[in-house]
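Help needed: design a sequence for this.
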């Protein structure tokens, strides 16, 4: 039994099956490549960030001690270091809260979803719907 394009129904089904297999294999490979790329980026960035974070924390603690000592020199009270520590702590809380808020907003706006693969699959869905409509 032939349809209008000279192919039998069995041949059309066989072609459709092969195209579907190729389609799925291509999309799985695309997803795997994109997720692998994201994982490699994270694997390289995380250790560097941890080492840098430890060194920055050490420097930050030493600089904070210097800042507390400088502020303490402005007071002539027996509590001068306690007052200086409170002033520096409140300053850090305010600045740290603002910076953390900015960072949180940046993280919320970043997706770990494989965006290129999803976009391609949506385009494929539209194409497939068009093809099915044209075959019928």
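Sure. Designed sequence:
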């Amino acid at each position: 039994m032939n349809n209008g394009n000279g192919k039998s129904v069995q041949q059309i089904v066989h072609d459709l099956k092969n195209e579907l297999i190729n389609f799925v294999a291509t999309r799985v490979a695309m997803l795997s490549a994109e997720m692998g790329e994201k994982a490699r980026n994270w694997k390289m960035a995380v250790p560097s960030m941890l080492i840098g974070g430890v060194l920055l924390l050490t420097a930050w603690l030493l600089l904070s001690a210097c800042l507390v000592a400088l502020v303490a020199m402005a007071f002539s009270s027996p509590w001068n270091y306690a007052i200086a520590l409170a002033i520096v702590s409140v300053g850090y809380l305010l600045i740290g809260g603002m910076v953390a808020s900015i960072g949180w907003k940046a993280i919320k706006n970043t997706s770990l979803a494989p965006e290129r693969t999803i976009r391609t699959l949506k385009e494929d869905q539209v194409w497939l719907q068009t093809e099915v409509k044209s075959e019928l």
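The longest helix spans residues 9-72.
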